[in-house]
Amino acid sequence: MTIQLSDLGQVYLFCGKTDMRQGIDSLAYLVKSQFELDPFSGQVFLFCGGRKDRFKALYWDAQGFWLLYKRFENGKLTWPNTEKEVKALTSEQVDWLMKGFSITPKINITKSRDFY
Question: Which of 11, 14, 86, 104 could form a disulfide with 44 if both were Cys (CB 3.0 to 4.6 A apart)?
């Protein structure tokens, strides 16, 4: 079964490394205190540790918190390293991330003689 995180609400990615030993209360506190976002908003908050082969998703469903944990068996996530930054992701970016691709794909521009 695949959970479509973007179907739950706006998805926010917390850049940099998060201590993956943190649980619901610590991650909710981080969302509120460090980034001034509301952990009870029904939005999805993503966190990644240093190994980049696993992430946690924190989500409030109006009755309680969900803490989802995913570990990739093969490969690693392409996770932004910028500390102290949060990014709102589009559903397309969430899909890319879940497939192991970067949320900001590089565009390959080739030169053509027609442009000279």
Answer: 11
Q: What is the pLDDT of residues 34-43, one digit of tens each?
A: 989 999 999 9
What's 9's DSSP letter? Answer: S
R_g over Cα of the chain: 16
| 87 touches 13 (CB < 8 A) | yes
pTM exceeds 0.90, yes or no: no
Listing DSSP states for 45-85 in one string gives EEEE-SSSSEEEEEEE-SS-EEEEEEE-SSS-------TT-
Distance CA 63, CA 75 (A): 34
